[in-house]
Amino acid sequence: MGGEPALNRRPTSPSAVENLDAELDRIAALNIDRLRALWRETMRRPALDALSKDLLARALAYRLQEQSLSGLDPHLCRLLATLARPGAEPIRHLKIGSVIVREHEGEIHEVMVAPGGFCWAGQTYSSLSAIARKITGVSWNGPRFFGLREKDGPAQAEKEAVLKIAMKDERRPRRGAVRPRLKEDSPNGVAGDHG
After folding, report:
1. What pLDDT, on a 0 to 100 scale, did the predictor assign at position 15?
2. Structural domain total, the chain
3. To the nearest 10°, the Cα dihedral for 138, 144, 145, 151?
4. Domain annotation covers residue 195
5. pLDDT for res 28
6. What is the pLDDT of residue 87?
7. What's the pTM?
8. pLDDT < 50 stretches in the chain
9. Which letter does DSSP use for residue 4 in this model?
10. Quick one: 102 and 31 in the same domain?
């Protein structure tokens, strides 16, 4: 994909590893004034006053390792950058058998999380977006349509209607998952809500 893993890009000799270990030990033993001086020399700017001795030493050690071992793989850097975007939401997981309820144009729609997809109106679909498209006749982001995103959920009146219906049967969750969790996804091999 994005290249070879970082450790495979530059072979590291045993002597280089020993030198790196010795330099890391030296950084750990420095006092804060010497760490700040090393920071200025390495980073070409003064260290922030708020950085503690521990943080300075850790950041300098990371920088040294990055220079010695070629840093992170470019593909991993891109992945981390996308995860760090403001507003990024973690993937939610629904337990198989959970029911997502949505009212649209006066009609209540119930979608059950099934192994490998979502069951609605007697058919299984691979995504919530496909179901939202069938319900509305237009292209929709499925998780947004079903109110599974905090900031993009249905209007307040629709939320209240959904909650009233969901509260009739306590087995129905108020919030749901974007992707069903399958048995093989679970660390112990049992489907369930793990997070």
Report:
1. 79
2. 2
3. -130
4. no
5. 92
6. 64
7. 0.38
8. 1-9, 152-154, 156-157, 160-162, 164-165, 167-177, 189-195
9. S
10. no
Q: Is residue 105 part of a domain?
A: yes
Name the token pair of 60.
């300098």
Instruction: Identify the three-state secondary structure at position 193.
Output: coil
User: Which residue reads 């679970």 in tokens?
Assistant: 186
Report in angstroms the alpha-carbon separations of 72 from 4, 92, 125: 10, 28, 38
What residues form DSSP beta bridges with 93?
179
Token output for 144: 């947004």
pLDDT at 160: 46
Which tokens hold the place of 67? 């220079």
Residues 77 and 120 in one domain: no
> Is residue 1 one of the residues assigned to a domain?
no
Put residue 34 in one of left, alpha, beta given phi > 0 → left and psi -120 to 50 → alpha. Answer: alpha
User: Do 57 and 36 lie in a common domain?
Assistant: yes
Find tokens 């629904």 and name the residue.
Answer: 94
160 plus 104 within the same structural domain? yes
DSSP calls for 20-65: HHHHHHHHHH--HHHHHHHHHHHHSSPPPTT--HHHHHHHHHHHHH
Distance, in Å, from the CA atom of 42 to the CA atom of 50, rounded to the nearest integer, reads 18
The residue range of the domain holding 14 is 6-83
